[in-house]
Amino acid sequence: MKNPERGKRLLPSPKQSPRLLPPLPQQFEPPSPQRSQKLQQELKQQERQENMKRLKSQEQSEQQRNNIKILKWNT
Q1: Compositionally biased, Pro residues: which spans (predicted)?
Q2: Contact, 55 vs 47, CB < 8 A?
């Protein structure tokens, strides 16, 4: 059986929208455990990636400073 409403999911009809948009106090409830866990994992992953980038750039600048010191010593 084909669902005639299938293509219309993106634009809810005025009758549906009040049900899809809960009153404000409910929106601030914590998300479901699985969802919050997933969000936390994504956040940790982003933080880890940013930390890695920061570490790499720090190491590179340290390496450059050390190379400059070595060059000065050698001249």
Answers
A1: 20-33
A2: no
pTM of the predicted model, to two decimals? 0.41
Number of folded domains in the chain? Answer: 1
Which residues contact residue 30 at a Cβ distance below 8 angstroms, ignoring those fewer than 6 apart? 36
- Which residue range(s) make up the domain with 61? 34-75
Q: Determine the straight-line distance between the first and last CA of the chain, rounded to whole angstroms.
A: 83
Q: Is residue 2 in a domain?
A: no
Instruction: Look at residue 51 and tell me if it is in a domain.
Output: yes
